[in-house]
Every structure is written in structure tokens, then in C-alpha cells.
Amino acid sequence: MVDVYIFEQQGLKFVEIEDFHSSHAVNLTRGEQKAHITFKPTLEDQRLCHNCLETKLNNDFTVHYDVNRDLNAGQIQIVNGYFVHFFAPVNLQPLPKNIVFIIDVSTSMWGSKIVQTREAMVTILDQLKPEDHFTLVKFSHHISTWNEEMTIANEENIEKAKEFSRQLTPSGMTNINDAILRGSAILRKAHKEEKLPPRSASILLLLTDGDPSYGETNKENIRRNVKNDLGEDVTLFCLGFGMNLDYGFLEKMALDNQGLARKIFEGADAPLQLKGFYDEVATPLLSKIYLEYPENAVENVTRSEFQTYFDGSELVVAGKIVNNSLDSFSTSITAKAELGNLTLITNVGVSDTENLLEKQHYIFGEFTEWLWAYLTIKQLLTQRMIEPDPEEKQRLTDRALEMSLHYGFVTPLTSMVITKRVKKAAPVLTAKKVPPSAGKRKVTGVDSDPHFIIMLPRQQQHVCFNIDEEPGRIINLLTDKENGISVNGQIIGAKKVDTKTGKLQTYIGRLGIVLSDLGIFIDISTESIVVHDSKGRTKFPWNNIFVKKENFSIQVSDQDKFFIFLPIDTSFEVVLHRVWKKNEIHRSFLGFYTRGESQFSPRTHGLIGQFFKEPTIDISNIRPGPEFDKPIATMQVKVHTSSYQGTSNGLPDPQTRAAIW
Question: What is the CB neighbour count within 10 angstroms for residue 567?
Fold first, then answer.
């Protein structure tokens, strides 16, 4: 049974329920400010067939609603000394936008990617408004433009740009640095020559599928160059196409410049994903938005300055009220609108607001505080991601961790630190020291072909080794009988032999995780996640979920990362690597990583587990190998000496991207 209660002070504009099996079991009643939705399926409604035990109700039950909005200062809620402010004005004239599309046409875009990019660009160009200005920059190692000037979006120019888009052809390497700087220079020149409306929003939209490989390739230098060049008046959005790219780099670069990044997954709907993202930023309504609150009456206020407000979005600010004797709470908002400067002011009674929410049982007492904590943690993690100074980065980490633990939020940070910040131990082909300043998180796991990634913290060494097993073979990754934990992986093969290497590449295609003390078995494939327990079988898609039980919890985030948090203060992470279904050679596969190895028992074994207690390892007799950059060496583990006449496999750590041996 599902029971949903909604109460909104502003009044309900609409309430909709997505199409769902057994819609006759759904009941909706609503008034001006309240709605109540119930879903009570019968046993027959739930069964896949008359005699089946399996359920057909595997999809989400989703309710969409919105509130009545107007051109005002928004809504303020105050509960237990914390406030939250929702600001989403309507009836505003859109700001003209000045947009430069920066499109990667390097060799890696060959095939479906470039076809889908052409299709998406034609659709997006049709959505430009007559008051907009635009141009296109295409780049590989060579950079060229459709027009060196920002061009008005009239019908003739749009048709010319669409024809340019249809002719996009991949070749060459990837020069991201110079491509963005070229787009920025075109915008800056147009502003300087006063060819653009003074009240407008300037945007760079980057689409790429790879890492920089030509010109400036140091990513920190690229970030610095872009930030210095764009300044405060241009927003950068980054779209990462496919799986073979450093998404973290794109995300940091976008956040540096008041924007955001988005992954575009390969597949038939990729053009829709591209268009969907563009729709989110297609209609800027305000720029330079500042929300101000009573001086000396609030503290720990979340972000309250915003570069741009887009149609369909909402700005949310929260904070703590420190003046307990405050009778009224005022807010002042200033922004630049298309018709001139905008100022909005509102004033609410503190006790009146609290009493109204309490009377309606709108939210339980701590909700506003939790929302403030959520926004603050999210802000700290964003600042931490882009902060170059190690000491400040650590301060942000400590604060975010402290709040995450206090409020019980599961975040990438808590999943990493609650489990004691990873110890990776292990064997390998040969080892290379990783600089302490690399600042990458330490991970032990198995990924790709498959190769095993081990970190030896005491010796500051990354090591890795490969295994060659036939498809279908099941391998034991770790077994800890003392804690009732076992993890097995099944090998799958590529669709055919890679003509470049002459080998059939293999991967981990399926994982089985047994938690015998909890009576739980988890079956993970590239298609779904199935949890078996005493109550039966529950199947989850690779969509964002969070399920918490008494002794453990599971979470899927970003639609490709599956976390299992265990009662012994450790966790597992499974990464789904999606490959385009029509790829002639490769197929989708899984990566498996562990955190908190020190919590496992000393008798833990398995291909990964046997190295949780860091062995003594010594690399000696390093000498030239068959290739100049692939030496061979002797590695001594504990008391056993093995001479490996192998070479560096040249593979990067798929999480840290650091070179490993």
C-alpha cells in the first residue's frame, strides 16, 4: 500500500500520477491546498499471472505536482529555528541568450555518436528564439567555426547552421582547451563591440566524449585557463558523451564557471538526452540573483547568490535563525530581468508560519533542519571537488563528513570514510609509486579486462595484475567466513576477437554477493540487481534507489554505481560500464571495489581478499623490457620470490585514472 499526503500553502496547480499497472487501485482526492493519493492493489493486481508468485509491480509509483506561482519573492517556511526559502517566479519575459555550441569532432566521435550529435543539433537549433545570438565551434586537434561572429537566430542563419551541423565529420585528436577559449573569445569580442543585448545570458555549451589529447593536456591547467578567461559573466555547461572520458574533469570545469555537467549515455535515446539537457537551460529568466536575509538574525545560510535562473527551475536557500526573539522574517531579492532591474521583498510572521505548518502536520519537526543540512553538505562537497588548496579541501571534507554522520546522510564521502578510508593491499605484475600529492582516493578492486587494482598504503604503491580465464568461469573475489561474506564474479567474453590485439577480451559480467549472517544473497548483472532474503526476491533496475534495512543498506546513484553498506563498517561498490548495444566487439560489464578492508577478519581469502592484510612487498631488479616504456622486474611478496617476465599492462585505474602497473 502507498499513502501520499500533500499540503502546500501556495495552493496546488496540478497533481498527476504516472501511468501505472492496476490504475483502478489508485485513488486521488484533492482540494486547493491538499491532496491525498492511495494505492491499494489487490493480490491479483500484484501477481504476474493467476498462479505466479512473481510480482508485476516492479516500476516506480510516481506523483508529479506543482504549486501556484506568481511574480513574488517566493515561499518561506520556518520550523524549529531553521528556515527554507523557495523562489521560482513566473510571468517573466525571457532574457535573450548568447550561446556558443562547442562540439567535439575528434576520431572517437565516429559512428553513432556523431550521427546522434548531428540529429540533436538540428533539433536544438530549431528551438533558438529570434532574440538569441549563437555560433558553433567544432574541434579536434584543429578548431574551426561556423561563424566567427555571434549571429542573430533568424530563420536563414538557423538553416545555414543546421547544414553545417549535418556535415560534422570526425577526425583527429582532442584539443578541449583551445576550443573553449575560442568560444569565449567570440563572446567577449561581441560584448566589447556591443553587438549583444546588455541584459542577456551568455552560455558556452561543450559536448565531448574524450579526454584532452592535443595542445594543453594537463587538466588542472585547462581548468585554470578556462576559469581565468571566462570570468564571472559566462556560464559553462559540459556534456560528457559515453563512458571513455573523465567526467570528474568536466564536472569540475563546469562548476568552476557557474555551470553544471551531465552524462549522456550512448544509446538510441542519446539525441533526446542532449535535447532534454538543452531544454533545461534554453530559457533564462533572470541573471545576477541575490537573496538577502535579516542581518545578525541568521547564520550558516546556504548559497544565496546565483548566476542565472532558468524557466522550470527553482532556487532554494536554507539557514539557521539565531535571534529567537524574532517576530517577523524579511527577505529581499534583487536580480537583472529583461525589462530592467528587479527587486522583490517579502515579510512573514515567524510564529504564524510555524503554527500553520504544525497545525497541518505538513512535515515532522526536523524536516527543515534536514533540508538545510542536505543543501549544506551538497554545497560543501561541491566546494571540496573544485578546491585546489589541500588544507582547505581537508577542512571542507571534515565538515561535510561531520554533518553527514550527524544527520545520517549516505553520501560518496560517508561511504568512503565510514568504512575507514580504504586500505588496498595486493600482488601484481610490477609496481609504480603514486605521488602522495595525487589526491586520489584509494581503491581496491577488479575492473575492465579484468585487472585487479591494489593499493599498498604503507609503501605508497599501486599494483595490478590480470587474470586470463575462459568466459563462463566463476572466480572467488573474497571470502570472509568469520563475518559471513562471500563475493564471486562470473567472466564474460567480448562479442569477438579484437583485431588490434588478436585476443578475446574478457570482463566481469555478473557478481554474486552472499551475506550469510543476514540471510541475504545479491545477484548483480549489467541488466538488474536482484536481492534475495527471507521475504523473497526483489528486483531493482539500475536507477537511483536507496533501501535501508536493520543491518545494512544499498544504494544506486548516477544510474551506474551500486553501493552495499555492511554492518562491519565496510562497503562494496559495483560500477556498471555501459557499452553501446550495437558495438561490434565490446559489451557492458561490471567493476567491483571494496572499502574498509581492515574490518575483515585475518583469514579472509580470495583473489582480492587475500591481500587485505597488507603483505611486505619489494620490487627489485627493474630492467628494460621489450618496449622502452614497459620494464620488467622481480617482485617479492612476504617470503616468496617470483620473477615476472611480464610487462606493464599500460592500463589506467578506472576510478583514479592514475597509471598503474
Answer: 14
Judge if 523 and 624 occupy the same domain: yes
**Cβ neighbours of 270 (radius 10 Å):** 21
Examine the domain organization and report whether 625 and 478 are in the same domain: yes
Residues 397 and 476 in one domain: no
Per 3-state DSSP, the chain is made up of helix, strand and coil in percentages (nearest 5) of 25, 35, 40
- Find the domain containing 17 and state its range: 2-68
Q: In the numeric block, which cell numbers belong to residue 221?
A: 591547467
Same domain, residue pair 467 and 409: no
Which uninterrupted H or E stretch holds 446? strand 444-447
**pTM higher than 0.90:** no
Q: What is the C-alpha separation between 394 and 388, in angstroms, rounded?
A: 11
Angle at 259 between CA 158 and CA 192, to 5 degrees: 60
The predicted-structure confidence for 515-561, as pLDDT tens digits, reads as follows 998 889 999 999 899 998 888 888 888 887 788 777 788 888 877 88
The residues facing 172 across adjacent strands are: none
How many angstroms separate the CA atoms of 601 and 105, rounded? 51
Handedness of CA 72, 74, 79, 80 (dihedral sign): negative
Return d(Cα 378, Cα 403) in angstroms, integer.
11
Tell whether 407 and 480 lie within a shared domain: no
